[in-house]
Amino acid sequence: AQSVAQPEDQVNVAEGNPLTVKCTYSVSGNPYLFWYVQYPNRGLQFLLKYITGDNLVKGSYGFEAEFNKSQTSFHLKKPSALVSDSALYFCAVRDIKAAGNKLTFGGGTRVLVKP
Amino acid sequence: DGGITQSPKYLFRKEGQNVTLSCEQNLNHDAMYWYRQDPGQGLRLIYYSQIVNDFQKGDIAEGYSVSREKKESFPLTVTSAQKNPTAFYLCASSGSGTGVYEQYFGPGTRLTVT
Predict the structure, then answer these.
(1) Quick one: residue A72, left, alpha or beta (phi over 0 = left, psi -120 to 50 = alpha)?
(2) How open is the CA angle A34-B103-B57, to the nearest 5 degrees?
(3) A34:B96 CB<8 A
(4) Alpha carbon distance B35, B84 (integer Å)
(5) For residues B22 and B6, is the Cβ–Cβ distance under 8 A?
(6) What per-residue confidence (pLDDT) applies to B97?
(7) Residue B47, SS3?
(8) Among A56, B1, B72, B93, which one has the highest count of C-beta atoms within 10 angstroms of its own C-beta?
(9) Under an 8 A CB cutoff, do B48 and A100 touch?
(10) Over the stretch B16-69, which tens digit does the pLDDT of each residue have?
């Protein structure tokens, strides 16, 4: 079984400050990990994914994420947050052993960036 | 949202009626998915299809049905057996095979049943 936890329902940050959104996962094998962003009443937009290799993954809109196998974490980061980054963020995992391309999503973290 | 369309954006139905949500993609993806989103619960997988004329139940398939007669289309029917159908429904598609593919999402349909 595969599962994802996003321990924070909401993250508040001032514009220009660093932003971190936390994600931990559980899989029986090795993970494929994804981050998505959702703006109000819209579908999800893909930000980045980790497959293998370098633990620091760079994605869209200046976001990056760090894979930490020992802590089973995949935290999303942005060095300097913008008001326009305010949205709902989802972490997702797929077990490398799982058939197909089924993803399991976390419950989401709402990010509020204040001017 | 480009490449995947869902219609309508808002849908209202009376309790006891079946309703079908449309999902079309022009990305030439083999795999398609239906998710349900409720506040505070993230996305839950209803059904998925990896190829035409084949589909599998996800985690919450009860009260839903799907068909995959064409590669481009994956309609979802919410039946009267679904006990709590009011939700935001998202369709997605992806490549399939041995690679690792991100899923592309449509804009969603918000269904309200009263």
Answers:
(1) left
(2) 105
(3) no
(4) 14
(5) yes
(6) 80
(7) strand
(8) B93
(9) yes
(10) 999 999 999 999 999 999 999 998 778 999 999 999 999 999 999 999 999 999
Q: What is the CA radius of gyration of chain A?
A: 14
Q: Which amino acid is at A91?
A: C
What does the pLDDT look like over A2-25, one tens digit per residue? 899 999 999 999 999 999 999 999
The total number of residues written for chain B in this structure: 114
* A40 in B contact zone (CB under 8 Å): no
Place of tokens 């595969």: A2
Percent of chain A with pLDDT over 90: 82
Name the E strands within chain A.
3-5, 10-14, 19-21, 24-26, 31-38, 44-50, 56-58, 64-68, 73-78, 87-95, 104-105, 109-114
- Could you tell me if A95 and A2 are in contact, meaning their C-beta atoms sit under 8 angstroms apart? yes
Please give the Cα distance from A37 to A44 (Å, whole number).
6
Cα–Cα distance, B4 to B8 (Å, whole number):
13
Element (DSSP H or E) covering residue B112: strand B109-113
Q: Is the backbone peptide bond immediately before A31 cis, with ω within 30 degrees of 0? A: no
Residue from the list B58, B96, B102 with its beta carbon closest to the beta carbon of A46: B102
Residues of B in contact with A37 (CB under 8 A): none
Pair of tokens at residue A68: 């930490």
Name the token pair of B80.
């009267």
